[in-house]
Design a protein that fits this description.
- The protein is α+β, with helices and mostly antiparallel strands.
- It folds into 3 domains: 159 residues, Beta Polymerase, domain 2, CATH 3.30.460.10; 70 residues, Hydrophobic Seed Protein; 151 residues, cca-adding enzyme, domain 2 (Orthogonal Bundle), CATH 1.10.3090.
- The protein is 45% helix and 10% strand.
- The strands form 3 sheets. Strands 1-10-9-2-3-6-5-4 form an 8-stranded mixed β-sheet. A two-stranded antiparallel sheet has the order 7-8. A two-stranded parallel ribbon has the order 11-12.
- The longest helix has 18 residues.
- Bound molecules: adenosine-5'-triphosphate (ATP) and magnesium ion (MG).
């Protein structure tokens, strides 16, 4: 079973056939009791109708590691129409490549027909269409082997076969799972060129799982990172949420910086923290990320508005030398710095209005904390965005980015004042709302953004 990983070979138009490693039921830890009822229903119904049916991707990876998967994806040799014929609660989605979604209320099991590899000449000719990072031709179905080899990392290309409960491994993923290794399938440069977002995914999975990025997979990242400039800002927004709002933001941020990726996501912030001699800006970001991680891991609601407000704060301060401590601020210059920082950022990573508006409010309220007048403070309590802006001030204080004593004064006054709005009570995050519409599971209110 512990065979060497097989090389990824692509001849002119077809991949050379390779033998998978089959890991039998008694040699892996995945059991049906850990798979959701709905995923099992889909797998069995496909199998009983005579089709191949496999659990694939993050579900197999996470179960193998004893983790709870976010969701379950199924791969099959049945065409989307054949899948639809088996399930009343099934909808076909996607224009270029059709996928079947089998619905049970909020829970959706995604069923994908095995996809063919894109021949290299076609990928190079620029005829590719990328949808969710996968290179697509219109509904070109393939074999399980082709489906495996077009996935990104070896650990994401394991197939749990419902017919005999074995795991099918075409790329050496099981060995990499055991070794704690993030390794791209195939030639890293080719794979990054096909889809530069894979560089971000490498860092994300490494931080999430506590794995090392394999040397060959890591090597091209610093010089290929600039390819991220060509990725649509809306897709990068989704990726940033997955990177920084999934509970390992601190580690992920460090890894993004180390690999030279952060500056393609937050260019002005990256420059600002590089130029910052005292390290207060980076300490501010680390605190903001740590507080978000804590909330995520306690299953309390979080919002991108608060974290993005923090992530861009260094970029705003960089334009307002002397405004770090926020005394004597010129409102007009401040407004201008905010607008410029936001505009620059939106060219890189699109931030939907429903988050950028509260961000602006959090920032705009900061100069109003520049007082120790109880009367003014009470007036500020009534602002709907008070709580988020106040949490933001506390972070500034902790990082030495506020006038000494100011945050403490506010903490004291807010804690002891009957008029202060209370922190939003902790409530459990909803599970199951998968592939959220760009919100990425971030359903909290801004009032509730930081601990
Ligand atoms: P997560 O726990 O974050 O959902 P995941 O592995 O399930 O991790 P998804 O983004 O949900 O990640 O993608 C599902 C699967 O699709 C992956 O496991 C991988 O096999 C494949 N995949 C996703 N994105 C890419 C990509 N950019 N290039 C190649 N394969 C990809
Ligand atoms: Mg997934």
């Amino acid at each position: 079973m512990a065979q060497e990983p097989k090389p990824f070979i692509v001849s002119d138009s077809q991949s050379q056939s390779i033998e998978p490693t089959i890991i039998p039921r008694d040699e892996h830890v995945i059991s049906r009791s850990q798979i959701s009822e709905h995923a099992l229903t889909v797998l069995y119904r496909l199998k009983n109708a005579g089709y191949g049916a496999y659990l694939v991707g993050g579900g197999v990876r996470d179960l193998s590691l004893g983790r709870e998967p976010k969701d379950f994806d199924v791969a099959t040799d049945a065409t989307p129409d054949e899948v639809k014929a088996l399930f009343r609660n099934c909808r076909l989605i996607g224009r270029r490549f059709r996928l079947a979604h089998v619905h049970w209320g909020q829970d959706i099991i995604e069923v994908a027909t095995f996809r063919a590899l894109t021949p290299p000449e076609e990928a190079e000719a620029g005829t590719r269409v990328v949808e969710d990072g996968m290179i697509l031709r219109d509904n070109v179905y393939g074999t399980i082997e082709e489906d495996a080899l077009r996935r990104d990392f070896t650990i994401n290309a394991l197939y749990y076969n419902i017919a005999d409960f074995s795991v099918v491994d075409y790329a050496g993923g099981m060995a990499d799972l055991k070794a704690g290794r993030i390794r791209l399938i195939g030639d890293p440069e080719v794979r990054y060129r096909e889809d530069p977002v894979r560089m971000l995914r490498a860092v994300r999975f490494a931080a999430k799982l506590g794995f090392q990025i394999d040397a060959e997979t890591a090597k091209p990242i610093p010089w290929m990172a600039e390819l991220l400039d060509d990725i649509p800002p809306a897709r990068l927004f989704d990726e940033v949420l997955k990177l920084l709002m999934a509970g390992q933001g601190v580690e992920t941020f460090e890894a993004l910086r180390q690999n030279g990726l952060f500056r393609y996501l937050f260019p002005a912030t990256d420059t600002a923290i590089d130029d910052d001699e005292h390290g207060a800006l980076i300490s501010f970001l680390a605190k903001a990320l740590a507080s978000t991680d804590k909330r995520v891991n306690e299953e309390r609601p979080v919002t991108p508005a608060f974290l993005f407000a923090a992530l861009l704060w260094p970029a705003i301060l960089a334009q307002l030398p002397g405004a770090r401590l926020q005394t004597d601020i010129n409102r007009e210059l401040f407004e201008q710095a905010v607008t410029e920082a936001l505009e620059r950022q939106l060219r890189q990573v699109a931030i939907p209005k429903r988050f950028s508006l509260p961000m602006r409010e959090i920032w705009a309220l900061q100069p109003r904390f520049d007082t120790r007048s109880e009367k003014k403070a009470k007036r500020l309590f009534t602002h709907p965005r008070f709580r988020a802006a106040y949490d933001f001030l506390l972070l500034r204080g902790e990082a030495g980015l506020a006038e000494p004593g100011l945050a403490e004064w506010w903490r004291e006054f807010t804690t002891n004042s009957a008029d202060a709005p209370p922190p939003t009570p902790a409530r459990r995050r909803r599970r199951g709302g998968r592939r959220g519409r760009g919100g990425g599971g971030a359903n909290g209110s801004a009032e509730d953004a930081s601990g």
